[in-house]
Amino acid sequence: MPDQTNKINCWEFKKCGREPGGARVEEYGVCPAAIEDKANGINNGEMGGRICWAVSGTFCRGKVQGIFAAQITSCATCAFFNLVDQQETNILEETEKYLARLNPKKGPPKL
Question: What's the CA gap between 27 and 86, in Å, rounded?
């Protein structure tokens, strides 16, 4: 059974300070995951906070990440990604749903 405790968003886990009102917003700006309303509720997260690997423009390992296809390989080794993977079921299915919301005419990429 998935772990239902500690359901936190990426900015809480990473302590990056890039959520709205965060300590590092002035320096780096608000992270797109923290304001991505199309992802709100996915994987039980706030905005894109528990599907950050699919949100373009997130800031990890000291640099801005690109589109989903380019960033997913580095995200797969991320401790937060792996935490969400353990806590939720079907995170790749949820990722496909989110990507379909972004481009409804084209549909999601096949994962």
Answer: 32
**Overall pTM surpassing 0.85 (yes/no):** no
* H-helix or E-strand spanning residue 27: helix 25-28
| Side-chain-side CA neighbours of residue 102 (13 Å) | 17
Contacts of residue 70, Cβ cutoff 8 Å, sequence gap at least 6: none
Task: Evaluate the CA torsion angle 95, 96, 97, 103 in order and state its sign.
Answer: positive
Alpha helices by DSSP H, 29-107: 32-35, 68-75, 79-87, 91-102
Looking at the DSSP bridge assignments, the partners of residue 12 are: none
pLDDT per residue as tens digits for the range 6-36: 799 999 999 999 999 999 999 989 999 999 9
Nearest partner of 48 among 70, 68, 77, judged by Cα: 68
Alpha carbon distance 103, 83 (integer Å): 27
